[in-house]
Amino acid sequence: MAPISPDNTPRFRIKYSVTGHDHDFQIRSTNSPSAIGAFVDSFLTPLISLLYGVTITSVEHAATGSNVFLPVTSGIEGNVYGGPGGSIGEVPWNIDFAGRSAGGRKWRLAVFGMKSLAGDYKFLPGENTPVDNAIAALQTRSPGDLLGIDATEVTVYSYANAGVNAHWQRALRP
Prior knowledge:
globular
């Protein structure tokens, strides 16, 4: 497939802090900031028991054709998902949701702050109710909430991967 410019769709950048470090994830969507806030809340809420205190610090938006992200009010700024804690060794731990756009492009969304990596680094359907519920929220969203880089709707897979992010491993080494 030919490459597509990253600014091909409108994007929301959700910034958050967990275990003393700042992270973010991007959602491509044509919906309003408040709709995106409700959508993000719907998939993070089921994960509360599995996360160290993920605090949403800000939400930003970039229009199609722009790489300039500007702050917006989504209604989730300041929300905390999960409990306190987390050691320096757990900073790289994340859950990674995967899928594919209707046009065939790969899609993923990773959230840091996981308390567990699952026995085999994969949450299969039926293995973990909170993960199943988060996946269901990603799958049963409103039209336009979740687009691929090609501006088509995303089909989210029924499993999630757990992992230890190599970038954060290197960043934390003395």
